[in-house]
Structures are given as C-alpha cells and as structure tokens.
Amino acid sequence: MASTVLQSDSELARIYVRDRYLRPALHRGEGTVSVNVGAVHKALGLTNRVPLVCAALKSKRFLEENGLSIVSQTGPPSGQSTTVTFTYELAAAKIKRGPSSSPFPGIRGVARDVFKKLGGGESFLRNERAKFHG
Fold it and tell me: Distance from the CA of 8 to the CA of which of 45, 50, 70, 111 falls in 20 to 30 A?
C-alpha cells in the first residue's frame, strides 16, 4: 500500500515558486526575480489563503533554502494582499537543484565557435572517425 505525503499549503506555495519562478530565472542567468502573491494564490487554486502565501514567500525557511534575499516588497502596508509582489535576489550557488535539474543546458553551445572553424560538428566527427578507422 503506497503512502501519500500530504503537503501544507505553505509548502505547496514554496515548491511552486521554486519550480516555476526561481529555477527558470536561475537557468536564464537572472540575478533577481519578482513573484506576485495573487498569481501564486490563483495558480495553486487556493481560496482565502493570501496571508498564508505571503508568509510562506517571506519566511526565513524559504529564503534560506533557496539562497534568496528580498530586494523589495510592493503592495499595501499590511503586506497581506494579492497585489503584494516580492522581488528576490538570487544567490545562484545556493539554489537547490532537484533531480530534474540538469547542469548540461548551461553549457550548451560552449564550443560552437571552435566547431565552426573546423567546418561544423558533423564534419569534425566524420574526419575524426575517418582518421580513427582509416
């Protein structure tokens, strides 16, 4: 019998923002990322949980787990609204990579110019194979 792990709404919000905002921004090489509480609340299909989402996205746990610092927070003084937007500074080395994250997309095209000078990647491989077998 498989056990089901229940996650709190706070944890769901933290995971959603990590996967949908932080990792893509890191992959694009961005130094900051902005997250609107209302967009997260809506995407998760929550009802009347805005204060919870706000608290989750500015929690010490969320910031430390993802190597973040809050650069700015816009919205009403209460800080409890769908209009609240957090802007985080990413500390790239501290972002946790999950099992689906791969470092390889980051090095894509690194030798493009080298292979271009050699007539392209396919041409280079054909020549190397010919030398090896010939």
Answer: 70
Phi, psi (rounded to 5 degrees) for 86: -100, 135
Instruction: Name the segment(s) of the chain with CATH classification 3.30.1370.
Output: 7-90
Tokens of 5: 């792990």
Neighbours of 57 (CB within 10 A): 26
Residue type, 55: A
Encoding tokens for residue 114? 């080298």
Average pLDDT over residues 109-113: 75
Residue with tokens 């009802």: 47
The whole-model pTM stands at: 0.65
What does CATH list as the number for 7-90?
3.30.1370
